[in-house]
Amino acid sequence: MSGQIPYLDVQCLTKSFGAQVLFDNISFSIAEGQKVGLIAKNGTGKSTLLSILTGKEAYDSGNIIYRRDLKVGFLEQSPVFNENDTVLDACFNHKGSDEALLRAKQILTRLKIRDLNQTIGELSGGQLKRVALANVLLTEPDLLILDEPTNHLDLDMIEWLEGYLNRGNKTLLMVTHDRFFLDRICSVILELDDKSIYTYRGNYAYYLEKRQERINNTRAEIQRANNLYRKELDWMRRMPQARGHKARYREDAFYELEKVAKRRIEERQVRLKSNNVYIGSKIFECQYVTKAWTPDNVILKDFYYNFARYEKMGIVGNNGTGKSTFIKLLLGLEHPDSGKFDIGDTVRFGYFSQEGLKFDEQQKVIDVITDIAEYINIGKGKHLSASQFLQYFLFTPEQQHNYVYKLSGGEKRKLYLCTVLMKDPNFLVLDEPTNDLDIQTLQILEEYLSDFPGCVIIVSHDRYFMDKVVDHLLVFKGGGEIKDFPGNYTQYREWSSMESSVTTAPKVKDEKKKEKSGNTSRQRMTFKEKYEFVQLEKDIMMLEEEQRKLEEDLCSGTLSVEELTEKSKRLPVLKDELDEKTMRWLELSELKM
């Protein structure tokens, strides 16, 4: 890229709101073909920086230089359209060519916007963001600036967008908290931290490694400055006020040293582990639940599931397949058409919903939490105060005494999360908890949930987050079809691709070859055998329940002759099936998981 004029050159940019400085004297550039990810904590100015770069917001000082005649496309976090326009009008301010119209339909269909004559005013917030994304992509800009492009996209859409952005020599700058997305697309990471900007020339994994090196170096620099500062402070106290030229030079150096010595790195040194959570052995049983909004929109169809103690389950699937509805059925916020949820007596739900973000904006952050509890019991005689708990989730003492209305959207989401956790639940149900949270908060939440000694259900499109936390998936495929999978998201994708590309016959042959080669004494299950083993447990439980009901009905004396005949025929078939599955389960149980 040497010798070329960069697409964008930012020089010594400063922006403040009153006394709060967001960034001070920052510089960076973006060259043609670079894909740059911007990372920062909530409230430190990511979206403000993007608004400044696109001319939507003023700045205090510095220069923003674009290459001449460069076409820039900007996806805002909260896009605004004329609500009377149709979807197609929103994507074309003037009539386009037939080719452009076809391309618009293709991209909108990929983003699951199918009614192109629907007015903007009729769209949900998620649909509106997807129309805005389509609009930006259709303009084919030289430089794409994207603020949270994966919010409101399901997994299929995210994977399509990954492919789209990776094709060709596209240039882009984006803010995203989706670390899978960041890792697969970006070749440069910019980190906005402590009013400065740091450049890492690599993907997200490279950034993590180099960021830790930077923090370690800074910590060592502060330690050295502290050691020298104590000596210099002693000299300052002993020296008389009338100082010569050399002494004044040393005095100036002392004040510079003092600035370094008093720097603080906001890094948590401990993980928050709660030992105070108790949950009984009975959690919940989903007993043959059926739910449909219309005959064509089936959510669950005779669905059975027995949730295990300490289970951490992820729920994935495309938008509209019923993930949030399933959660609401479990919590009693919606009612099934048939079947029921049988919930254990000790279960105390903590529910983080997509609609639950409601605060008194005039309250202070600390008061929102102390209204719930003054402290949280973490077991073994230890307590955390409301302030300490907030600090763990990166609310500084200064931020805790801010009014809620001063918080950014991401900070409000984080505060809402704290209100859920502060109520001391033993079963967390989190519906899209990662939206708008910064990466540092996501890492803290991952640790918290991994250590959480209760049960967890998470609905999320954040693949990286799911891999870190969950050990089991329910995959909602639509039409009432649900895949029960014992593993995380990456394992499911591997299994899914393997299923579609490999036929059953060669697998049988491979197993026979292994037996012939004397490999029958292996001690560990394969990945597929683990899946089969867990599925067998579920099947056996369902068959035993069916057998129990059949035997009850046959002994009840209330059946008609036809019912009696039908159930009498089913019983021996059921017993054979149960015996077969039990034998296979016993074979597999001799191998180690």
From TrEMBL:
<dbReference type="InterPro" id="IPR037118">
    <property type="entry name" value="Val-tRNA_synth_C_sf"/>
</dbReference>
<dbReference type="InterPro" id="IPR027417">
    <property type="entry name" value="P-loop_NTPase"/>
</dbReference>
<dbReference type="InterPro" id="IPR032781">
    <property type="entry name" value="ABC_tran_Xtn"/>
</dbReference>
<dbReference type="Pfam" id="PF00005">
    <property type="entry name" value="ABC_tran"/>
</dbReference>
<dbReference type="Pfam" id="PF16326">
    <property type="entry name" value="ABC_tran_CTD"/>
</dbReference>
<dbReference type="GO" id="GO:0005524">
    <property type="term" value="F:ATP binding"/>
</dbReference>
<dbReference type="InterPro" id="IPR003439">
    <property type="entry name" value="ABC_transporter-like_ATP-bd"/>
</dbReference>
<dbReference type="InterPro" id="IPR003593">
    <property type="entry name" value="AAA+_ATPase"/>
</dbReference>
<dbReference type="Pfam" id="PF12848">
    <property type="entry name" value="ABC_tran_Xtn"/>
</dbReference>
<dbReference type="InterPro" id="IPR051309">
    <property type="entry name" value="ABCF_ATPase"/>
</dbReference>
<dbReference type="InterPro" id="IPR032524">
    <property type="entry name" value="ABC_tran_C"/>
</dbReference>
<feature type="compositionally biased region" description="Basic and acidic residues">
    <location>
        <begin position="507"/>
        <end position="517"/>
    </location>
</feature>
<dbReference type="InterPro" id="IPR017871">
    <property type="entry name" value="ABC_transporter-like_CS"/>
</dbReference>
<feature type="region of interest" description="Disordered">
    <location>
        <begin position="503"/>
        <end position="522"/>
    </location>
</feature>
<feature type="domain" description="ABC transporter">
    <location>
        <begin position="8"/>
        <end position="219"/>
    </location>
</feature>
<keyword id="KW-0067">ATP-binding</keyword>
<protein>
    <submittedName>
        <fullName>ABC-F family ATP-binding cassette domain-containing protein</fullName>
    </submittedName>
</protein>
<feature type="domain" description="ABC transporter">
    <location>
        <begin position="284"/>
        <end position="503"/>
    </location>
</feature>
<keyword id="KW-0547">Nucleotide-binding</keyword>
